[in-house]
Design brief:
Shape of chain B: globular
Shape of chain A: globular
Structural class of chain A: mainly alpha
Mean pLDDT of chain B: 86
Mean pLDDT of chain A: 79
Strand order of the largest sheet of chain B: 7-8-9-3-10-11
Strand content of chain A: under 5%
Radius of gyration of chain B: 24 Å
Largest sheet of chain B: 6 strands, mixed
Order of helices and strands of chain A: HHHHHHHHHHHHHHHHHHHHHHH
Structural class of chain B: alpha+beta
Oligomer: heterodimer
Low-confidence stretches of chain B: none
Number of helices of chain B: 9
Number of strands of chain B: 21
Largest interface: A-B, 35 and 52 residues
Number of strands of chain A: 0
Number of helices of chain A: 23
Radius of gyration of chain A: 25 Å
Strand content of chain B: 35-45%
Chain lengths: 531, 349
């Protein structure tokens, strides 16, 4: 009865791997490649435009003294602010996540809220209150306070999910508190710190509004100047350098990241370990935190309120006086549409990335880099100039183009959110559902989307929040005759009508803060849910 | 209740050939274990049967239907396969009852009666309104089983279903599962790397090695008559000694031993299998003297390593004894082999 042996006589020659292939997700692939193609459009357009301008004029415009000074301004600010954000963000995250700092639950929220305040509103706050806040020092203070949460958030998340037991083991092995922090904690958070710094650097390269207010000249502000004086060839040349710079930052990050990753050993159950005692240092540390929150949150909010009160009773200035409600309506409509579009675009790519590893995945992930490396001003410029010049004006000056631009710009954000949400719906559950007789579509509806739902909302909010506070691309692409909160604020601000600008700033802060708190709660929950 | 037949199955992931010609016939109503070390392709074989992957070559037949073969690939949802993955994979957003009823048509789902009776069958009656995270690991595993059985599957596939359970839970859940399958008369295929589990749970065991079925038979056959020395040491503890065979007797370091009558081995250099429980310790009797080098006490029995005196640097012998006095390292003992032994020609394992 036993069939001992290998039944070798029935064995056939091993087939070539391509003999029969598992069914490839053709629909998913097609849609994903389409998305990748859309993401590549701005770069393609920019290259076409550069070609149209001619190689030698562009080269001439690149290699001039102005470029060197812009490069110096941009690079030195990027380096200094990124370093400052890395230090502030990491230390703050460690204090909140791993120590017994008093009131750290409340601080965890307050420390993040500045991210919701647009950079140009922060700089408006400082610059409108204190005239010394300008140039390099002003830009350094404003940008550090505006973007350090970009480091704080990922580091806090990674510390939350990393095994605190490793710190205990290190202490038990005789390594002191400082040595443990450097060798273990920083090691655990290394990837997160690098990721945060990357975002900070990219934001700095793309920032326009804040620098314009502070009178600090970078590539982005200069591109705007050139556009305003209709010198497209120069805009093109500067855009190329800026894109190159961003790509360099991305490449550097790729190098850091490829060297090892932090693993968590053991089961994923959350063991509560006692927080580190700060001892006598707790009050000074708390004071530092309060100072940070006051500077990052108090100054812009305070300035907005100060100018509103200062302007009471409101003076009716004639001309382009758009109501707050109108502008808020436009902002919500454009941002909502863009958030929906970006989330929908990200879904197939995230599905491929999470569910089908291999070459396709890497290719598609690279394609999002095409967008990450393109500052908003460049994307907007590429789209608007292309539609006007090469597409016979198709789409030029319409809200569709603005929405498309937002969706492309913030696609990487949507992708991060959608991927995180899909990670909550592991493929094994899909397989079980299918073995229970459910077709693909039924599985999508009954399992995948149910589980990923909250995360998809979070991805939507992430893009919405970013679009609400977007200024650079909005200024370039806003349909004539309409205003959003950001552009109307900008119009008043550039007229130095601070009292009229302030309500718009305040509304933007409020509109953006709500989704950011929703987001904070979601990502907290994700990090706490085991697995 | 269907039988399953796998013929000439090949599967590679990139350059890595995972399955290289698997042939397996699983009779209807049996509980068959596929036993193999991790990385041997057991899970791949299971996933091919379930339809989550597609074979490079070969066929899989369930009952009268070829579900995977040249030009044929039946989607997983149309195979009526009950699949119980390693971690249970309960739907975290659904109650236990909704989990069990997931595969039922909407009408039957609503009442909840069917799900409840299945839950009672796996001993979890009354827990239907809980959520998966409120259950223990063993309970989750049972819910996953009830969910798989709900669709009245032709075959149930279990992927290391007990691996995530604590040792003391494992035995009881395993026995329950065995009983549930007996009663339902379901054909079940279980994948495991734990030989103990395979031998004690299954009617039939298929040992998977290098992408092929190396041996297939009842648990007793696999343990008592392994196809080669390699399998002998994989399935259970084994002393493998060199020896010389002539005239039906093997000459080994543990004396002259009769060869198992059924083994057809040509005379000459052989490798001999002696299970640890085949060796008796008889102080003072005619046997091979040696000294204990390690003594591991397990309660129900004890396992010793013994160094035969004649060869102080040579291979130690593992002995299992039931009862008897404690034998600290250094104790002198005498080894004697009980019963006939198995042997294979040496040089070609």
């Amino acid at each position: 009865m036993a069939s001992t042996g290998t039944l070798a006589d029935r064995r056939s020659a091993p087939p070539t791997p391509s003999a029969r292939r598992a069914r490839r997700p053709v629909a998913l692939l097609t849609v994903s490649y389409l998305v990748a193609a859309i993401l590549a459009l701005p770069l393609v357009f920019l290259l076409i435009e550069a070609r149209g301008a001619g190689a030698s004029p562009v080269a001439h415009l690149v290699f001039r003294a102005l470029t060197a000074s812009l490069l110096w301004n941009t690079v030195r600010l990027t380096v200094v602010v990124t370093a400052a954000c890395a230090v502030i963000g990491t230390l703050a995250a460690w204090c909140v996540e791993r120590t017994d700092l008093p009131g750290r639950r409340a601080l965890a929220v307050l420390v993040v809220v500045p991210l919701a305040i647009p950079d140009f509103v922060v700089s408006f706050g400082w610059n409108s209150l204190w005239t010394w806040a300008q140039g390099f020092p002003g830009a350094f203070i404003v940008m550090t306070l505006a973007v350090y949460p970009l480091v704080y958030l990922p580091v806090a998340a990674s510390l939350r999910s990393a095994d605190p037991g490793q710190e205990e083991v290190a202490r038990a092995l005789g390594s002191g508190r400082v040595r443990t922090f450097v060798r273990i904690t920083l090691g655990q958070a290394k990837g997160a710190i690098a990721g945060g710094c990357l975002l900070v650097a990219l934001v700095l390269l793309a920032e326009y509004g804040a620098f314009e207010i502070l009178g600090y000249q970078t590539f982005t502000t200069e591109i705007f100047n050139e556009l305003n004086s209709y010198s497209f060839a120069a805009s093109c040349a500067l855009s190329l350098v800026l894109v190159l710079l961003s790509m360099l930052v991305l490449a550097a990050d790729g190098l850091v990241r490829s060297r090892g990753r932090v693993a968590r050993s053991g089961p994923l159950t959350q063991r509560v370990t006692p927080p580190q005692q700060l001892g006598r240092a707790r009050w000074p540390v708390l004071a530092l935190f309060i100072a940070l929150v006051l500077l990052a949150l108090g100054v812009p909010v305070g300035a907005a309120i100060y100018w509103i009160v200062d302007g009471l009773p409101p003076v009716l200035s004639g001309g382009a006086n758009v109501s707050l409600l109108d502008a808020a309506g436009h902002t919500a409509a454009y941002s909502g549409a863009a958030a929906a579009l970006a989330t929908v675009m990200a879904f197939p790519v995230a599905m491929l990335a999470i569910r089908h590893s291999g070459r396709m995945r890497r290719l598609l992930e690279r394609s999002t880099y095409l967008v990450l490396g393109m500052p908003g001003v460049v994307i907007a410029f590429a789209l608007s100039y292309f539609t006007e010049r090469y597409a016979a004006g198709f789409g030029y000056g319409t809200s569709m183009l603005l929405i498309a631009c937002y969706a492309i710009m913030f696609f990487p954000l949507a992708l991060v959110g959608v991927k995180a949400s899909l990670a909550r719906a592991p493929v094994s559950l899909d397989e079980v559902a299918r073995s229970l007789g459910q077709r693909r579509l039924a599985v999508l509806g009954r399992v995948t989307l149910r589980l990923a739902g909250p995360g998809l909302v979070a991805a939507f909010c992430l893009v919405f929040l970013s679009a609400v506070t977007e200024l650079t691309a909005t200024l370039l692409l806003i349909p004539t005759g309409t205003q959003t909160l950001a552009t109307q604020f900008w119009a008043y601000e550039t007229n130095l009508s601070y009292s009229q600008a302030a309500p718009f700033a305040l509304v933007m802060i409020i509109v953006a803060a709500v989704p950011s708190i929703v987001l904070g709660r979601f990502f907290n929950r994700t990090a706490q849910a085991p697995g | 209740m269907r039988d399953v037949e796998v013929t000439g199955l090949y599967k590679a992931f990139g350059a890595h050939q995972v399955l290289a010609g698997v042939d397996l016939e699983v009779p209807a109503g049996s509980l068959t274990a596929i036993l193999g070390p991790s990385g041997s392709g057991k899970t791949t074989l299971l996933r091919l049967m379930a339809g989550f992957e597609r074979a490079d070559a070969g066929t899989i037949r369930i009952g009268h239907t070829v579900v995977d073969g040249p030009g044929v690939h039946v989607a997983p949802e149309r195979r009526r396969i009950g699949y119980v993955p390693q971690e249970g994979s309960l739907f975290p957003h659904l109650t236990v009852q909704a989990n069990v009823g997931f595969g039922l048509p909407a009408r039957q789902r609503r009442g909840g009666g069917r799900a409840e009776s299945l839950l009672e069958m796996v001993g979890l009656g009354g827990l239907g309104q809980r959520y998966p995270h409120q259950l223990s690991g063993g309970q989750q595993q049972r819910v996953a089983l009830a969910r798989a059985l709900a669709i009245e599957p032709a075959v149930v596939l279990l992927d290391e279903p007990f691996a995530s359970l604590d040792a003391h839970l494992r035995a009881s859940v395993r026995a329950d599962v065995q009983e549930i399958f007996r009663r339902a008369g379901t054909t079940a295929i279980l994948v495991t790397h734990d030989q103990d589990e395979a031998l004690s749970t299954a009617d039939r065991v298929a040992a998977l090695r290098d992408g092929k079925i190396a041996q297939y038979g009842s648990p007793e056959e696999l343990y008592a008559r392994p196809a080669d020395a390699d399998l002998a040491s994989f399935i259970g503890d084994a002393n493998l000694l060199e020896g010389v065979l002539s005239g039906g007797v093997v000459k080994t370091r543990l004396g002259l031993l009769p060869l198992d009558g059924a083994a057809l081995v040509p005379a000459g250099q052989v490798m001999v299998l002696i299970r640890p429980e085949q060796i008796e310790l008889e102080p003072g009797q005619d046997g091979v003297p040696g000294r204990v080098t390690a003594y591991r006490y397990h309660g129900h029995d004890a396992v010793l390593n013994v160094q035969p005196d004649d060869d102080a640097a040579g291979q130690q012998v593992t002995v299992r004894v039931v009862g008897g006095p404690a034998l600290p390292p250094g104790s002198p003992v005498t080894l004697r082999v009980r019963g006939p032994v198995l042997a294979w020609p040496r040089g070609c394992p």
